[in-house]
Amino acid sequence: MYKVTVFGLGFVGLTTALGFAEKGHTTFGFDVNHERMEMIIKGVIPFMEPGLNEALTRHLDNKFFLVENPIDAVRQSDFIFLCVGTPCGANGQADLKYIYSAINMFSDILNDGKYRVMVIKSTVPPSTTQEKVTSYLRERGLIPGKAFGISNNPEFLREGRCWDDFINADRIVCGVCDDKSSQMLQTLYREFNAPFFAVSLNTAEFIKYLSNTLLSTMISYANEMSKIGDVIGDIDIKDAFKVLHIDKRWGGCNMASYVYPGCGYGGYCLPKDTQAMYAASLEKGFEPMILKKVIETNESMPDFMAHKICKILSPSDNIGILGLSFKPDSDDVRDSASGKIIAKLIEAGYHNLLAYDPIANEAFKKDNEEFKLIYCASLEEIQKRADVLVILTAWQEFLNVNEIYPDKTIIDCRYVL
Ligand SMILES: NC(=O)c1ccc[n+]([C@@H]2O[C@H](COP(=O)([O-])OP(=O)(O)OC[C@H]3O[C@@H](n4cnc5c(N)ncnc54)[C@H](O)[C@@H]3O)[C@@H](O)[C@H]2O)c1
Fold this sequence. Notes:
Bound molecules: nicotinamide-adenine-dinucleotide
Distance between the termini: 51 Å
Number of helices: 16
CATH superfamily of the largest domain: NAD(P)-binding Rossmann-like Domain
Number of strands: 13
Order of helices and strands: EHEHHEHEHEHEHEHEHHHHEHEHEHEHE
CATH class of the largest domain: Alpha Beta
Strand content: 5-15%
């Protein structure tokens, strides 16, 4: 069994550390966010993820150890997993500052004679490991290959299902450039019942972006079609898409749910990853026109939805926003469509806004202090206090809101009613 140090204990890093612990490896976790570390030390998961609490209880101080200084952990580890954020940079490219700051923390000991594999699990555009990270290391006299290995291992988990997706992965993809790293990674993942692909560094990164940009493209396609339906008129958009999904060629697959209109894709991954792939290609001299339009369509959605709401409501109405997280079953509010649409409404002079999310009220309030919203603790409360309800996240709880409150005006921006 191996020892693994994980840098970054967010959705991906904490799941990775606990997931390897579950499979019998000893894992060490480190995060620069002290608040996050404090919560985890107390056995509390900093976000809502089914299965992670139980996994933390099973493994904390048993197979999974939090470390305040990661150097000792790295010294004894066979793997260093980088699971730090890779936010959107100024021109849309992936900002690698957290990757570099993590490397700086252990670079001094990479040449100490013990062979380790440094694994980039964070999402980075094709060619990043090979060109940018390797150059960064070389500039510091660190040559991957002999003293240590470098690889990447994109993560495909979905928020709200992190634990299950990690433990029951459908595929494990590792970008490698030397045999030793490749063999060690294969052994690390031996207990996972999933096909293992050892491919070139660039290919592994490319596979991750194939996945995320396809999802963005399907969503923008559906949103563009919904706009066409809207301008032509007398089209039941919801029914039209439901009928589309009956086509045998979909085979009842879950991917069909991405070909469905709404408020635009949001969350931490699809917006920044689509931008980053566009920027990475542009940097190499090819402008991807489909991705350009996918991004433009997505960016137009908050305006489109706000306009739809403003056409029906007046600024004096008390508007009850249903849903603040970027998708149901998650309390992640990063880049959520709700945030963007609320901003547009406020800009248009609509200030009587109430909001309710089954689990994300607190997270949204913390991230959007500038919005003066009245937060409600339940669906019952918001329907009592608001004149009109607007569905912005398709939580299960909202799917029959029209039947529970038949007299209420409801604007359904997710086409779920
Ligand atoms: N969230 C997802 O659904 C998902 C899915 C697949 C891949 N990814 C990718 O995985 C990466 C992490 O995503 P996430 O959602 O877990 O992010 P996150 O923001 O939840 O967590 C990242 C953590 O890294 C920490 N960090 C930053 N610099 C550090 C350093 N030098 N040392 C230690 N910790 C440091 C931050 O404090 C933060 O807690 C991103 O590249 C993302 O694109 C995310």
